[in-house]
Amino acid sequence: MSDKRKSTRRRRGSEQPTLQQVADAAGVSAITVSRALNAPERVNAATRIKVLATVERLGYVPNLVAGSLASARSRFIAVIVPSLANAVFIEVIHGLQETFEREGYQILLGNTDYDIEREYQLIRTFLGWSCSALVTAGLRHSEACRSLLTHWDKPIMEVMELGDALDLNVGLDHHEAGRCMARHLLAQQYRSVVYVGACLDRDYRARMRFEGHREVLHAAGLEAPMIELDQLGSLDAGATGLERVLSRYPSADAIHFANDDLATGALLRAQRLGMTIPGDIAIAGFNGLPLGQHVTPRLTTIRSPRENMGRLAAEEVLKRLDAKRVTRRRHDVGFELLVGGST
Amino acid sequence: MSDKRKSTRRRRGSEQPTLQQVADAAGVSAITVSRALNAPERVNAATRIKVLATVERLGYVPNLVAGSLASARSRFIAVIVPSLANAVFIEVIHGLQETFEREGYQILLGNTDYDIEREYQLIRTFLGWSCSALVTAGLRHSEACRSLLTHWDKPIMEVMELGDALDLNVGLDHHEAGRCMARHLLAQQYRSVVYVGACLDRDYRARMRFEGHREVLHAAGLEAPMIELDQLGSLDAGATGLERVLSRYPSADAIHFANDDLATGALLRAQRLGMTIPGDIAIAGFNGLPLGQHVTPRLTTIRSPRENMGRLAAEEVLKRLDAKRVTRRRHDVGFELLVGGST
DNA sequence: TAAAACTATGTTAGCGCTAACATGGTAGCG
DNA sequence: CGCTACCATGTTAGCGCTAACATAGTTTTA
């Protein structure tokens, strides 16, 4: 009798108080409660206080799913990275998270494991969540993914690398970074330099750096041998890389590693083998992770502004979401050659 | 005329095809499309093929927000960790992600930065997303959080440490780990052992290890001095820790660090200062990160099964979600003393 | 002082999907 | 052959919230 339900059908009621119940208890309408919570300035101060007190009293937790459906947008930001094992992405994520959370957005994190097909699947799923924006690492996507995204009308931010982006872009020039390090090695008079990377078909940014590196060596009339490992950046892989170089290119005087994990693994292994760095062989990396700066000698590397990249990317996306004018679609965050004692 | 809308009001139509449109195009009802996608075995094979082809043709992407609202559950798992800077949590997350994604669940990641109040806020928000389960690091929560969770009827998994949990629990005994390392150090004849931790009020598991450590030293009639750094686990902080020990406890013969990052930072700094390990001073850590196993000498540490912990936690939660019987609510994943050359 | 503009709140109608129940057809069985 | 059982599909009614429009009261403006 007291139940206003017209039908006898029951749906699983979740026990949780609803907005309507809060409204009834506070003696206002549902929309007023909604406004008190989501747009406080549109509600009279006294009403607002009364409503918020009721919310508190009933322990009301807003159903964000319902809110998102009604408003056709969620405060989710889809973030897609190729790996969690690499500290670089963690730092970018950290920068993104900090900035987005401050504005009340929640990150939906996806990990592709460097698989472009998985990226597509993840993006499909994420679009189903009515995300407010998408941040993804890199400019390369599958055809299906590309066409899915071109029909999507929310901000898309591609980070890490610089180039012809779908929408917004914050990153750095990996070709140029490769060139930069190669030039440094040549300037230091190394003449037999081996590049060591891992899974370069998947970690194609490392391949871009290799291409820049090769360009400079060729221009100087030198060979540009390369060794590709089949295990992604890790200290272990770096140790393996060193050993491969020693056996295949015994006359090598320097190794340019695709990242700091590999380089540091090699450096530590070399020291364990009793070699001196850079006397017996010089070692260079990429990323500028703290690790490389704590070994002796310090690792020569290229520092990319990782947290900054995340922060900047988030800020640009937020600008767009606030419907502010976006002055530049592309931001080059640059990089910095850190010359340590290892070269 | 062709618009079936009864009112002239328009809502922001998202252009995206809806389930109903797919149904119309395929000549079936909406619920059949829903079933073809979510419970294929409940639809005749021929119908299913027809529907899925239509889905493909129209580029239909299911609106997961609407689905979650209607079914009062999302395929989200809330995961809350105290830090992303620590590799340990990354590995746990990786283990969780792998296992949950295979079953079609999406992780909602929250980072508390070791702030118990932020944990409460995050959990509140996540409950608003109708998550299927919650995985959180640690057993300590704010009062408000605790009462929120006891009224929640979905699986709750507390990881990392072992003890009196709200629901499910996968972890290890940090007191015992601290005792274990202290016993090892005593067995190696070190008699002046300093414990070095960082922010022990927030990283209270490190404090638990210290308490175990202190217990063993006191039982042996020894002092158990401790130094607390104000910067969470990093190589830099470890280097600082070493210097503090050298100046405040010049007679110390061993340092027990709260984690491998600190320990390795100290080891590398000691070497840069020309000290020998363990001759001048012994160093021990906790976690068993690869890093510590690549320095020379290898770091003595305690290995926790991190990815495993994530995987096991996810499996237990999945069991519960499948309404399978959960035989044990508490799982001790244990740990392993790794004796390197640093002690 | 009447019209315009603004403020505070309410009413109505969905957002796109799925749970629950309903229906009609086919098979299985004694 | 009449019964139950089951299979495939459909109908109906919401899930809990917010956009859009509506309304009444108050202030500003010409």
TrEMBL record, chains A, B:
Highest taxon, organism lineage: Bacteria
UniProt lineage: Bacteria, Pseudomonadati, Pseudomonadota, Gammaproteobacteria, Oceanospirillales
Domain HTH lacI-type intervals: 17-71
Signal peptide residue numbers: none
Coiled-coil portions: none
Full protein name: LacI family DNA-binding transcriptional regulator
Species the sequence originates in: Billgrantia montanilacus
An annotated Gene Ontology molecular function: transcription cis-regulatory region binding
Swiss-Prot/TrEMBL keywords: DNA-binding, Transcription, Transcription regulation
